[in-house]
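Hi, here's the filled form for the chain we discussed.

Project: internal
Contact: R.S.
Residues: 339
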Amino acid sequence: MRSSAVTAVREWALRPAIIAASLAAGLLAAAPALAADLDKLEVFAQPGVSTDSMWMAEARGIFAEKGLDVQIRLFPSGTTAFQTFKTGAGDVIFSGDLPALQYWQNGGSYQVIAASNRDSKGYIGVTKVEIQKPEDLKGKTIATRVGSTGSYFISEYLAQNGIAEADVTVKNLDPPLMPVALCQGDIDGFFVWLPAPTKAKEICGDKVHFLTTAEGYVKGYSVFGARKEYLADPANADKVRRFVAALQEGRKIAEAEEEETIAYLDKRFGLTREEVLTSRGIMERVLKIDDVFFEDFCRENKWQQRAGLRSEPSDLGEWVWDGLKELDPTLVAEAPPPC
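And the returned structure, exactly as it came back:
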C-alpha cells in the first residue's frame, strides 16, 4: 500500500480535532460578548453524517438563535466519549445504542433524550477479499470498538451464521485506526459504522471488500442523553429542549439542502461527496423516542441476556427521559414492560 494512502487516512483521523479546535478559537475570538449572553451547553459527539441535523444547526447559527452557546467536543466513538463523560465532564453526549444502554445499566447516571438516527446498511463488515463467507472468519482477527454497537453486530452475525465467537479473535480499535490496520495486515477485517469501511476500500483497493451489512442482523442507532440529575434541573431541561428544537430545524435543512450539507461536512470533517451521499441514502433521522425505538432496544436487551451481558430484563421506561413531551407530546412513545 502506498505510504501516501496511509498518511491520508491518518490525516482523516486527526482532522476533526484540528478543525474543531480552530473553529472554537475563531468563534471565541470573534464574539466573546455574544457568547456571554448565551446559555452554555457542552456536547460530546462523533464526526460523521449521522448527526447532520446538529452540524447544519451549527452551520446556520440556529443554536445561538435558540439562546445556546453549544460547544461540541469530538471523540472517535461514543464508547470513548463515555470514558470522559463518567468523570463528570460534558452535558449532553452522543453515542451508539449499546454504549448508552450499558452505561445506564452499569449504574451510570444517564437518560436518553432522543434517538438522532438509525439504520442497518451503514454498519458494515469489511474484510480481506479472500474472506468470502461467514465460515472464512474462523481463526481470523476482526476489529471493532469493543463495547460499541459493533460488538452487538459481530455477535449477531456470528450467531446467525452458526459460528462460535471463540473461533474469532476480536481486537479493540477506534474506527479511524481500522482502515490502516486492515490495509497493513494487522487485522483481517472489521465491523463498524461508516465512514471507516469506505475509507478502507479507498486506500486498500481490491484487497478488501464488503462482506456484509448489518441488515437482517442489527439496527444501529445514534442516541443522545444526559445525566439524570442534570435533566432534573428545570433550567437544564429547558436548555435541552431548545437544543432538540434546534436539531429539528437543522434536520429540515439537512434534508432539503443537500449541496450545502455536503460542503459543510467536507469543511468540518473532510468527508467526501460520495461518503456523505452514501450515508444520506440509508439513514433515518429520528429525533424522538418512538415505538420502533422501544422494539429495537427490547431486541438488543434480549440479546444482552442471551450473550450473558445481563441477567434480567431492563425497564427501558426508566432509561428514557420524558421531558420532550413538554416540547411535543408526540415525541415520546409509551414505554413497554421490562424486556
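Let me know if anything looks off before we file it.
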